[in-house]
Specification:
Elements: H1 2-14, E1 16-21, H2 24-43, H3 49-64, H4 73-89, H5 95-111, H6 117-129, E2 134-137, H7 141-151, E3 157-159, E4 173-177, H8 186-189, E5 195-201, E6 226-231, H9 248-251, E7 271-279, E8 283-288, E9 293-296, E10 306-309, E11 319-323, H10 328-339, H11 344-365, H12 367-377, H13 399-409, H14 413-443, H15 447-453, E12 455-458, E13 466-482, E14 490-491
Length: 499
């Protein structure tokens, strides 16, 4: 801890170094990408979505993975994707669009055959100080893997930002690969070494340092100065537009949502308002804003990784634990009934009786009328009436609410009340049993593969197969879908450029 404080003091006093490396091929690609952005904005259609996604993905990789091409498979793959996506829309374009695609694909071809110049300067720097004196910091696990395949055999330590909290890391200088503005603030405010140097291609215009949300309000906030060093001959690109730096939020590869707008109608009785969530591995789900959802924390030890998280707390980077081909709620419901043995038919019939009666009232009178009637009767959670029709929900939470509901539905209190209580107890036991199975399944999962690849599939231990997958993006738009479709993963390529 003392070493970390000394490093912070040194960086706050001396600042950080920013090595800006001339990269003509990258600059031409960047100019082409920005021109495509402008044309896509003028066009106003979805035609350019995948071309833009592929191009921004390639540009992102050039900024964060400067190793020679023999250690750089993702740059080659991204360049091929740009060419393929451009060829796919070429027949639908006029002369101006085709000319722009020609410039873009030519730039992509160039970066796929010539080593990124940033890598040569990075290698020279690390060789000069030696493996024991420096750390190389990549932007994430995937970049760390590729850069590590290049520098690791030479004895150098390549780390992701999440690994820098390790107290055993000792070095004089950290070489950070990528623009400071896109890296974690902690690299500046809690640096791992007394010296921090960033390597940035010349075409990335924003050279500012990241700041914390509270920096403007904090007394003595750490605001190191930046010493800029230009390496190589930086040539202006004649067709680069516009000249000002691109907004940071526009630099990252975009999710592809397709044509969608927010839902402008109330959901029906069997429908729910959802947002589309893009997931690693080529999946997506429709996520409602109801009950909690299973998540996984790969930093926790085996046996403590799977938990429940409020839907509102799910964000990009969260790992969801999902059943393939079915929802977790459906699996829990079937497993609960199976656990009841000879009581299954009686309890299932009893539950169906009052739920169908409530569903009938909702369909005939409408949700507002039903909720209003229940509220007048004294039901405190009347707004949950529609949710109570779902088979997976045992009964209203409050005994008084359930008794009043049964009275309003003209359903005899017994045995409906006792059967619902029995179902709820069985569901609690089954949920605990399923969680143990999930923990066992996740204990055998390759957590490093999950961190690197974003998703991993494991055997369902008697249930449907399980996938742990990283949230890539959450749509700002809402949709209305059938309730049974919510939270069930389905194939979707909208997050492919975010992987």
């Amino acid at each position: 801890m003392n070493e970390r404080y000394r490093a912070t003091t040194a960086v706050a006093r001396d600042g950080v170094s920013l090595f800006v490396v001339a990269d003509e091929n990258g600059a031409r690609l960047n100019a082409a990408v920005r021109a495509v952005v402008l044309m896509a904005a003028d066009d106003g259609s979805d035609l350019w979505e995948h071309v833009l996604g592929a191009a921004k993905s390639l540009r992102w990789r050039l900024a964060f993975r400067p190793q020679p091409l023999e250690f750089n498979p993702s740059v080659k793959a991204a360049a091929s994707a740009v060419i393929a996506q451009a060829d796919a829309i070429r027949p639908a374009l006029g002369d101006d669009g085709i000319a722009l695609l020609d410039v873009l694909t030519e730039a992509a071809e160039r970066v796929a055959v010539e080593d990124p110049p940033v890598g040569a300067y990075l290698l020279e720097s690390v060789l000069e100080v030696g493996p024991m004196a420096c750390l190389v910091v990549a932007d994430g696990t995937l970049s760390r893997g590729e850069i590590g395949s290049w520098l690791g055999p030479l004895g150098f330590r390549v780390l992701s930002p999440g690994m820098l909290a390790d107290a055993n890391l000792v070095a004089d200088i950290a070489y950070v690969v990528g623009p400071p503005r896109l890296m974690r603030t902690s690299l500046i405010t809690a640096p791992p070494t007394p010296e921090v140097s960033f390597f940035v291609p010349s075409w990335f215009g924003d050279r500012s340092l990241p700041t914390t949300v509270i920096a403007d309000y904090a007394q003595g906030a750490i605001r190191p100065r930046v010493r800029v060093f230009e390496l190589g001959t930086i040539k202006p690109i004649a067709d680069e537009v516009p000249s000002e730096p691109e907004p940071i939020e526009d630099f990252a590869p975009p999710p592809v949502w397709g044509s969608q707008g927010s839902a402008h109608r109330e959901p029906g009785v069997d429908e729910v308002v959802v947002r589309k969530v893009l997931l690693s591995g080529g999946y997506a789900i429709w996520m409602d804003d109801g009950e909690r959802i299973r998540t996984l924390d790969p930093s926790q030890p085996a046996g403590e990784r799977v938990t429940y998280t409020d839907v509102a707390a799910v964000e990009p980077g969260t790992y969801l634990v999902l059943r393939l081909g079915v929802t977790e709620r459906a699996v829990l419901y079937e497993a609960t009934l199976a656990s009841m043995g000879v009581r299954r038919a009686v309890v299932e019939s009893s539950q169906n009786r009052w739920k169908q009666a409530l569903l009938g009232r909702l369909r005939s009178a409408g949700r507002p009328h039903v909720e209003s009637a229940l509220r007048r009767l004294g039901v405190r959670a009347a707004e949950q009436a529609e949710a109570w029709t779902q088979p997976t929900l045992a009964r209203p939470q409050l005994d008084s609410d359930f008794k009043l509901l049964l009275q309003w539905l003209e359903v005899t209190e017994e045995p409906a009340f006792s059967n619902a209580a029995e179902f709820r107890r069985a569901r609690f036991r089954t949920a605990s049993h399923m969680r143990e199975h999930l923990e066992l399944a996740m204990a055998s999962a390759d957590i490093e593969a999950l961190r690197a690849g974003g998703h991993v599939k494991v055997d369902g231990a008697g249930f449907a197969d399980i996938i742990a997958t990283r949230v890539l993006a959450i749509s700002p738009h809402t949709n209305v879908v059938p309730r049974h479709d919510a939270r069930e993963p389905f194939p979707d390529g909208g997050g492919r450029w975010l992987e």
